[in-house]
């Protein structure tokens, strides 16, 4: 027998699941930055080349209309290089892809929208509320790439498709805690 979502208990469980747990997850990630998954901006060279070419000028940071790109604030060789934390503010795959054209050193190479590869979304079906009977599809509805990247399949579950570019909009939109969908970066950064 399922719990009435309009009961007092059901209301408080929804509040915890939708607001309190994600806030706690966010604060935990801030307190432990090594747990943050950082993506490189669209068009980034492979990491070994990127670190040699990027001058940390912040031109891509300033050009990003979504404020998704920010300087990485850790000690070591990554300090000051641009990164995206999708759980906080994902790449929205803006129309002009301003970050790539703003890069003066070609650490970010102009790349067609459908060829961008920041990473790949991975769905934890056990965590996904859709698997448990809710009709949630925030990740599908908010994807800037659309049906080429993510969809609800014939079995009524969320599936990631070959068109996923790893922008992270789905991860940010996911209401579960921990997230039922996360971006696996193209390359793991050593933070």
What does this structure look like?
Strands 1-2 form a two-stranded antiparallel sheet. It has one domain (32-185). It has helices at residues 8-31, 47-53, 59-63, 98-102, 138-142, 169-173, and strands at residues 69-71, 82-84, 119-123, 150-152, 158-160, 181-185. The protein contains six helices and six strands. The model is unreliable at 29-34 (pLDDT under 50). The chain is elongated, with a radius of gyration of 18 Å. It starts with 7 loop residues before the first helix and ends in a 6-residue tail after the last strand. With 191 residues, the protein is an alpha+beta fold. The longest helix has 24 residues, at 8-31.
| Rg over alpha carbons | 18 Å
Distance between the termini: 46 Å
Query: Mean pLDDT, nearest integer?
Result: 87
Name the assembly state.
Answer: single chain
Secondary-structure element pattern, one letter each: HHHEEHEHEEHE
Q: What sort of overall outline do the alpha carbons produce when their principal axes are compared? A: elongated
């Amino acid at each position: 027998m399922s719990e009435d979502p309009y009961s007092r208990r059901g209301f408080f469980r929804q509040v915890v699941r939708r607001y309190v747990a994600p806030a706690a997850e966010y604060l935990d990630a801030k307190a432990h930055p090594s747990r943050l998954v950082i993506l490189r901006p669209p068009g980034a060279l492979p990491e070994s080349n990127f670190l040699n070419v990027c001058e940390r000028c912040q031109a891509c940071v300033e050009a990003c209309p979504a404020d998704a790109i920010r300087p990485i604030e850790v000690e070591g060789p990554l300090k000051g290089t641009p990164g995206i934390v999708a759980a906080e503010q994902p790449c929205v795959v803006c129309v002009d892809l301003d970050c790539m054209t703003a890069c003066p050193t070609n650490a970010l190479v102009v790349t067609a929208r459908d060829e961008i590869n920041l990473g790949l979304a991975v769905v934890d079906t056990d965590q996904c509320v859709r698997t448990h009977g809710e009709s949630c599809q925030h990740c599908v509805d908010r994807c800037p790439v659309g049906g080429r990247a993510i969809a609800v399949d014939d079995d009524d579950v969320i599936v990631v498709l070959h068109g996923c570019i790893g922008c992270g909009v789905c991860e940010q939109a996911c209401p579960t805690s921990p997230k039922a969908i996360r971006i696996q970066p193209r390359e793991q950064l050593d933070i």
